[in-house]
Structure of tetrahydrofolate synthase:
Amino acid sequence: MTTLAADREIESLMSLHPKGFDLSLDRISRLLERLGNPQDHLPPVIHIAGTNGKGSCAAFSRALLEASGHRVHVHTSPHLVNWHERYRLAADGGGRLVEDKVFADAIARVAKANEGQKITVFEILTAVTFLLFSEYPADAVIIEVGLGGRFDATNVISEPAVSVIMPVSLDHESFLGDRVELIAAEKAGIIKGSCPVVIGAQESETALQVLIETAERLDCPAFVYGQDFLAFEENGRMVYQDEDGLMDLSPPRLPGRHQFANAAAAIAAVKAAGFEISHRVADKAMANVTWPGRMQKLPQGRLTELAPKGADIWLDGGHNPGAGVVVAEALAEQEEKNPRPLFLISGMINTKDQSGYFSAFKGLVRHVYTVPVSLSEASVPNEELAIRAVEAGLSAEPVSSVANALMLLRDTWDGPPPRILISGSLYLAGAVLAENGTPPT
């Protein structure tokens, strides 16, 4: 397979600069100043933080804006298969992933501007985001936070059109703190004085209070899920409600009841950013939204051919207990509508609460096949991961790969066509899409 030019540039950076994150904004600010502060020359920015739901909110926001005819730049992280997925440049009829030549040139220019100074690769690639987005015309920019908020490299935007805080729960405790109120405070770091903020559905009252108090202290117009806007299911439809009234919409194309709240946060955010959203536009966006690797029905490909005949195969990159809960709820909803025996193929990395993730599936999953995550040095050995699943009350066994798990299930299962969830890590989701021959486009 031919190595892309941008990949070569990134590999060169990784050999020169440290991995991981720098919990300050000094280095990224210095680099951006050398580049002419491109982050100050962007169209209206929707800046999204949160533990879970950031990507879905970004996907819904993009769908809403593009359904309105707007041209939209989108930055998300991490990628699943190719680095290019992080950079979607605005285009008529819908954005396109950045072309390799354009991407490689931007990386080279940013690296040159850095002049060999100490910096992380993530900071350089964030600077690439702002450089690219400032050089190509668009009507709006959607930027997803990488880690936390307050010290995330994306948090150099001084006046976002709107800041969005999606559900906050425990994750990345070694960086952000071991209590949900500490994590909420870090996420709230993207809220800027007098700029609108949308607070998505929060499970933790403590987290919600921290976010509301931050918005009040900074004199921000705040729009809170459950108070200023909400969404609910009625007769198979999605009903969105805010101070402007009700919209009766098609249910979100992304499966799971949690996506109603994510979609609602996106509608509120796009409106708070100053864009009008008609009933027709919102309905079109709900029907067309896509978000690879998050409760995605695995497209027909090389891996799906190994599964039991008629199997219903889903892929999800969620990797913390909060994600486990919403995915389990989505699968339980499917079970109510179309009962099938459920099997889980899971790989996780060692910075995640594995038992906490698995516990959400107790009583729902018939058996778990644990696999290594080949793309991560932090992969939990499949034998150890099986032990974590058993500790959570599940039946589990280690298998060497997703392909082998699918073939083992095909050769040993003699019941009705099963439902299969492949999950536990975005690294795993990316590897599966690549092996299946169906990467994001």
Q: What stands out?
A: The chain is about 40% helix and 15% strand. Residues 321-337 form the longest helix (17 residues).
